[in-house]
Specification:
By secondary structure, the chain is of the alpha/beta class. Helices cover 34% and strands 20% of the residues. The strands form 4 sheets. The protein has a 10-stranded mixed sheet. A 9-stranded mixed sheet has the order 4-2-11-10-9-5-8-7-6. It has a 9-stranded mixed sheet with strand order 23-22-30-29-28-24-27-26-25. Helix 5 (186-203) runs parallel beside helix 6 (304-320), helix 9 packs parallel to helix 11 and helix 18 packs parallel to helix 19. It is elongated. The termini are far apart. Residues 1-11, 243-253, 821-830 and 871-878 have low confidence and may be disordered.
Length: 878
């Protein structure tokens, strides 16, 4: 047992066997006590002469015999007491040995924790600048450092000393100096070898120890270890199979060797420690060249998944400390055409795997469908972030048709980043900050896309996009937003849309790739929680790197190596990588392959046309089940949240009076013309307030008479420039006209008579009239503030709106402009010729001299009274 030692560092403890009790000395026969009574009796007999005193002579033997018996009884009692005391002290010694063994065992396991403990317990990493010396092979009996002094005089003593020398269930160590051989079935010996590898990787710092592992698929899990090919001072070589057993064949210094074999005969002859593994719970170990025999142990084994997870964590720890040599093995430039993309079946919807770069251990594969569903990309200016996004997009499109994957690209740094892939049929559109309104429309439309996809899955009665039939056209939609931070700063409300997609996008096949220079603090927590794929190219601040990939390594990347970054591909293991770039050859091949391929469905509708015709309205209303057939179509509404254009319908009887507000030249007259044209199509009579003041007065009087004359008086009164229409009238007439209009507004709706009016500013209208209009259409206003003051939505304001464009019912609207000219002046109806019957006439006009000219044209010379002074002069002449 002495050849297998427990962990170094345990403190030796000395104990002692209790002494055996000594035998009491045998007592002699009490001759004096026996003879003294006889002598006394003889003396008395001689003196007294009485024979009776001779009886006392018999007491001597009796007393002597009693003394002998009493001495023997006392000796037996003393012997029993001494034996009980030693037994008690032996029990105490056994307890002391057990306590000493427990402390020794705990200390040994603390010094060399089991491999599973190193993996499971946080903080088990203990990298040191040491040469790998001994490894734990399992648990079993080892020589104890506990010493018990004393000589074994009986079996109990020998058993006690044997118990003290043997420490059970302790770590069994073996030195790597002479080599370690593992013998048994391949799965068992590989599991034991993995345990040794992980022990060394947790114990020795990368660059100190170099692990040379077999280049076979069984050892592929070890690719992430920072100790592999790290140029360490001490090399530990693992060999498997008969073809590579001789350590002497290795150039340079002889490495420490761990050999794997199925039988002992296959091990190199120089191997000293041999472990024969029979099953997961039993193995035997022996050291060649020693007198010690085989010792049974429970072998230390480790599964491949646990080993791979530990290797990834070790890699991440090495990256945090700047250790390992991954960067030296990465290329400085990599074209996408050099990478082999995975083979994807045409009908496969379950994967979006794409090779986008390389790591130190091979190609870097990202899969938004399997490891996503979403991703975050960080990178400062010049880090290669846009090139990485282009390469990722092209890699996904390279092996998939537009009916399987589509892209919506949002670029908030000018729009040039995604220009190379604009023509790919997979790209549904590129939204830029150069047209902020279009960007907002596109992102808002994505909520409608969620509903559209839910309806498709509902019709097909499936729960996930991967379960759709092959003939159903519903590609996975990858939404790539470059400079996500800028978009959220400009449109804070869009954060809720992105969060909605992040929460529901997985099963619906909608994926987000959010890129920003500093995503930390910009991406909402509920969004980042659904982004397991984390990429950080070079960033300026360690905190930004740590927030994305959990390490500050991305802040230490070389600025002269664009495309270099740190990535967590979705499995929690952060590795360094170098991104591919979209080269011209690959781009040309993608464009050629997609030349005759139908483009992917666009998830949002085009903006409203700058000019809407009656035919467009008819086409939009065709098949429109939600529309009121009796309503008047005024134009088109842009409804991005439903991914469609809808007819702007106004029902006078249902919706009430209509007021159109807008700056001069905004298309107010066009809007009223649309009302007039729509009313004509519906057979609704219209009255228009225009022409001379008398004509306008007659129109108002006619309209009021219709409203009051019948219970039902269908019709529409059109009033343009309502805020200025009666401004030049005398006060009495202006007030009378406004009173008539107010009466029409108040009484007309109940009788089916409506008013459609246009004005430049609502505040110039009396409150009673302004509040009588139930519907308000807002055309272009000089500023956002004036639009909001008029009751509009500031986010729908556009400084460059064309005539006829504005907002209505919370949506953008474009009114019908059949003539193609907005704000066309109302036709000036010439006044009827003046005809005078015989007699005297008095004519009242705003411009007396202009009316005088009209009278002269009839051949009559008028008397012009231009002022009250003229009237007084004429009266004096009379």
């Amino acid at each position: 047992m002495d050849v297998f030692d427990s962990a170094a560092g345990a403190t030796a403890t000395r104990l002692a066997l209790p002494p055996h009790p000594s035998e009491p000395a045998p007592s002699g026969f009490p001759w004096v006590a026996m003879l003294a009574p006889a002598v006394g009796a003889l003396v008395l007999w001689a003196v007294t002469g009485t024979a009776m005193v001779l009886v006392f002579a018999a007491l001597g033997p009796i007393v002597a015999l009693g003394s002998v018996l009493d001495g023997r009884r006392a000796a037996r009692r003393l012997r029993r007491r001494s034996s009980a005391d030693r037994a008690r002290r032996l029990d105490e010694l056994a307890i002391a040995i057990a306590e000493g063994h427990r402390a020794e065992r705990d200390g040994a396991w603390r010094a060399t924790p089991p491999t599973r403990h190193r993996i499971a317990v946080e903080g088990a990493l203990d990298w040191r600048e040491i040469r790998p010396e001994a490894v734990v092979l399992g648990r079993g009996p080892v020589a104890s450092r506990l010493h018990v002094d004393g000589q074994a005089l009986d079996d109990d003593d020998r058993a006690m000393l044997e118990r003290a020398r043997r420490l059970d269930d302790a770590p069994v160590l073996a030195s790597l100096e002479g080599g370690v051989g593992l013998v048994g079935s391949p799965p068992l010996v590989r599991a034991a070898a993995r345990a040794i590898v992980i022990q060394l990787a947790h114990r020795c710092r990368p660059g100190v120890v170099d692990l040379d592992l077999p280049p076979t698929p069984a050892w592929a899990w070890s690719a992430a270890l920072p100790h592999r090919d790290a140029g360490g001072t001490h090399r530990v070589r693992f060999v498997e199979g008969p073809a590579d057993r001789d350590p002497a064949s290795v150039p340079g210094s002889a490495p420490l060797t761990v050999a794997l074999a199925t039988v002992v005969e296959e091990l190199p002859a120089a191997i000293e420690t041999v472990v024969v593994i029979e099953n997961p719970q039993h193995a035997s170990i022996e050291v060649r060249g020693t007198s010690a025999g085989r010792v049974a142990i429970v072998p230390e084994l480790l599964g491949e998944p646990e080993s791979a997870a530990s290797a990834r964590r070790l890699r991440q720890a090495a990256m945090r400390e700047g250790l390992g040599s991954a960067s030296a093995r990465l290329p400085l430039r990599l074209d996408l055409g050099e990478l082999v993309q995975p083979s994807i079946a045409p009908d496969d919807r379950s994967s979006l795997s794409a090779v986008v770069g390389v790591t130190a251990t091979g190609p870097l594969v990202l899969d938004l469908a399997a490891r996503g569903p979403h991703a975050i990309v960080a990178g400062t200016t010049g880090s290669g972030k846009s090139e990485f996004l282009l390469a990722w997009i092209a890699a996904m499109a390279r092996c998939r048709a537009p009916d399987r994957v589509a892209f919506l690209l949002v670029d908030f740094k000018g729009g040039a980043a995604f220009e190379p892939v604009r023509e790919l049929p997979h790209v549904t559109g590129i939204v830029t900050d150069l047209d902020e309104s279009e960007a907002e429309r596109a992102v808002i439309s994505l909520r409608a896309e969620l509903r559209h996809r839910e309806s498709v899955l509902l019709v097909e009665r499936v729960r996930d996009i991967t379960d759709l039939p092959g003939e159903t056209v519903l590609p996975r939609l990858v939404i790539v937003i470059d400079e996500f931070q800028a978009m959220i700063e400009r449109f804070p409300d869009l954060g809720a849309v992105v969060a909605d997609i992040a929460a529901r996008g997985r099963s619906l096949g909608m994926h987000l790739v959010l890129a920003s220079q500093r995503p930390n603090g910009v991406v909402r927590e509920q969004v980042s929680a659904n982004c397991p794929i984390r990429i950080s190219l070079r960033v300026m601040h360690p905190a930004d790197s740590a927030a994305i990939v959990g390490t500050d390594a991305a802040a230490r990347l070389d600025a002269d190596s664009p495309g270099r970054g740190m990535i967590d591909p979705g499995d929690g293991a952060v590795v360094e990588f170098h991104s591919a770039r979209l080269d011209a050859g690959t781009l040309d091949s993608l464009r050629t392959a997609g030349r005759d391929v139908p483009r992917a469905r666009r998830p949002w509708v085009d903006p409203l046309p700058t000019r809407v015709t009656t035919q467009m309205i008819r086409d939009c209303r065709r098949g429109w089940s939600d529309a009121d057939e009796a309503a008047i179509a005024l134009g088109l509404l842009d409804v991005p949240e439903r991914q469609r254009h809808e007819p702007a319908l106004w029902s006078p009887s249902r919706d009430g009076h209509l007021l159109v507000l807008g700056a001069p030249g905004s298309g107010r007259s066009t809007a009223l013309a649309a009302v007039d044209r729509g009313a004509l199509e519906q057979g609704i009579p219209t009255l228009r307030v225009h022409g001379s003041p008398s004509a306008q007065w007659d129109t108002l009087h006619d309209a009021l008479s219709r409203v009051r004359a019948n219970d039902r008086a269908d019709g529409i009164l059109l009033v343009d420039d309502l805020d200025l229409r009666f401004r030049e009238w005398p006060d009495d007439y202006r007030q009378a006209a406004m009173s008539s209009l107010e009466a029409i507004l108040r009484e007309g709706r109940a009788r089916g008579f409506a008013v459609a009016a246009a004005a430049g500013a609502a505040h110039r209208l009396p409150a009673s009239i302004r509040e009588a209009f139930a519907e308000t259409a807002l055309l272009r206003h000089p500023s956002r503030g004036e639009l909001v003051h008029a009751g509009g939505a500031g986010e729908l304001w556009r400084a460059g709106d064309r005539p006829g464009a504005g907002q209505w019912r919370g949506h953008r609207v474009q009114f019908v402009d059949e003539a193609g000219v907005a704000d066309e002046p109302a036709p000036q109806v010439p006044p009827p010729p003046l005809v005078f019957a015989p007699g005297a006439w008095a004519i009242v006009a705003r411009s007396a001299r202009a009316m005088a000219d009209a009278v002269r044209a009839t051949g009559i010379e008028p008397i012009v009274l231009g002022s009250a002074r003229d009237v007084e002069a004429l009266a004096a002449l009379a």
